[in-house]
Amino acid sequence: MKLWTEKRTWVNRRAKSKLARLSTDDIDSILVIKHAAYGDLLCMRPFLVTLRQSFPKAKITLSTIEHYQRGTPDDLVDHVHILPTKHKSLMARFHAMRELGHHTLLFDLTESTPSFLLSLFTSAEFKVGYQHRSIHKFIYDVAILRAEYRFETETFLEQLHVLGLQYDWPPDYKMPITAINRSKPYVIYFPTASAKNKSWPAELFIQLIEQTARQYPQYDHIVLSGLADWEIEVANKISSELKTYQNVIKLAAGKDDTSLIKGANALVANDTGIRHLAIATETPSVGIFFYATPFGYWPRFGGHQVVFERDGSVPSVNNVKQALDLILDLE
């Protein structure tokens, strides 16, 4: 196999010869390390899809971390390895790091202390990771710069360039779900996030939904509640204020979320994993940003919109509605 590098790619002096000794048929075991929450586990699906297409004979193992299991793409891999959290004993964590055995290829998509240690202790013919200070020089055969302003899915896929692998565009997430059939088309509004200070104010969601419920009476407008008590309170407040609108409906989060979002005409959400789910299910979305930078979560495909102010302030109802109008006016 040929090694494909650019000027700023870090390459171990033996990397080219090591990879040259391997052929596609030699790739029988691949380890991918991704210790991350729900959204990033969804974002990495095209990476695994490309590996499966490129190396159909290989067994793929995905290393995850214990406290982030929701969204694990176990349908795309042969084995899921779970690294214990730091609350477990050092012996338990060390044992978990040494139980993976030998692999032909290793990809570290995480860039964290646990992933560095796991990459170091795991035997592999060829290791690929991200550049991090000087740590990568002691672990990987090739390390690339991590793009900070590109959509996360693309950032992960860039590691495959060093092997000359080609991936589908738009990225193929291969989500194994079927859309829910409802009597009317619908828009979903997910008003909360991982923390209250990351959530667009409920009062603004109320104003937005009131306007869209009037302008688009042919749609149901679904307020989807999160799981935490405070998220339920927010959803209840919004639906209560809009109870006079028969096309505004509140639904609780549950096992059918994926199918519900797959069937939606659009999703409006904060910077949260639910929006990543919309991206993975090919549902057009409006992402509202003010707490975090939007660029890593802004896919330039699939009709997805992001709304943010250049000064970092909370986006207005008018700007969010304009983004949603762009989607619904194309229906």
Automatic annotation (TrEMBL):
The alphabetized UniProt keywords are: Glycosyltransferase, Transferase
- State one Pfam family annotation: Glyco_transf_9
Look up keyword Flavoprotein and say if it applies: no
Q: Name one GO molecular function term.
A: ADP-heptose-lipopolysaccharide heptosyltransferase activity
InterPro entries, per the entry: Glyco_trans_9, LPS_LOS_Heptosyltrfase
Q: Which GO terms describe its cellular component?
A: cytosol
Task: Extract the SUPFAM superfamilies matched here.
Answer: UDP-Glycosyltransferase/glycogen phosphorylase (SSF53756)
Per the record, the GO terms for biological process are: lipopolysaccharide core region biosynthetic process
Name the UniProt record assigns to this protein: ADP-heptose--lipooligosaccharide heptosyltransferase II
Supply the source organism for this entry: hydrothermal vent metagenome
